Structures are given as C-alpha cells and as structure tokens.
User: Which sequence fits this backbone?
C-alpha cells in the first residue's frame, strides 16, 4: 500500500511492513508454544502484539488524547 506525498512522490505506508513483521512474530510465537518452551512462545506473542498496529501505536494515540483532554481542562479552568 502506498500514498502520495506533497511532492507527488510515492511513499510506502510504514504500517504495512510492521503488520508483516508482527504476523511473522505471532506465527513464530504459536510455533514456540507448540514445539519449544512455552515461556518463549508467550514472550514472542506479547512482542508481536506490541509491534502490531494495535499495540504501542494505539497506546500512543490514547495517551495523546488524554494529554489533549488535560490541556482543554486546564484551559477551561483558567479562562472559564
């Protein structure tokens, strides 16, 4: 998947590559759960979730929303 920038050049979407890596990690984690040590499989599955678009990027978006809520609460308190 790609999109156009302001200079009309095609730029690859970085979340596509992350999705492929997290899918590979998830499959490797399931493989480790079945074949290898169970704790390694759990660790790899947790890492796969964290690097997926629903892990750390979503946590960063949530945190940014909370910071903006705090900013607006302070503005309402000061300006009325």
Assistant:
């Amino acid at each position: 998947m790609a999109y156009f920038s302001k200079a009309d050049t095609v730029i690859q979407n970085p979340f596509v590559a992350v999705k492929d890596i997290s899918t590979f990690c998830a499959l490797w984690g399931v493989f480790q759960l079945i074949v290898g040590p169970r704790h390694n499989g759990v660790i790899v599955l947790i890492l796969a979730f964290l690097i997926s678009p629903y892990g750390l990027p979503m946590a960063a978006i949530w945190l940014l929303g909370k910071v903006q809520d705090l900013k607006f609460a302070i503005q309402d308190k000061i300006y009325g």
